[in-house]
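Next up, sample data.

:::
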Amino acid sequence: MNLREEIVADIQTLPETVLPKLRETIIKLREDEEKPGLLRRLQKIKITDAPSDFSRNIDLYLSGEKSID
């Protein structure tokens, strides 16, 4: 028996009263899997108004040694 079959067998033994809560948990797990991670979201950020050396010197801009004028 594989894991999916074991889970289905376990679910079949649960009382009807807990099934709504189980359904909510399954939906939440599915939604969490579909959410993009932090790095995927960061990849979508576009910086359009920055100096040409911004990516090379981001540490200097963040520390204030260089400023965006």
User: Anything to note?
Assistant: Residues 19-34 form the longest helix (16 residues). The chain has four helices and no strands. Helices lie at 3-12, 19-34, 38-43, 58-63. The two ends are 66 Å apart (CA to CA).
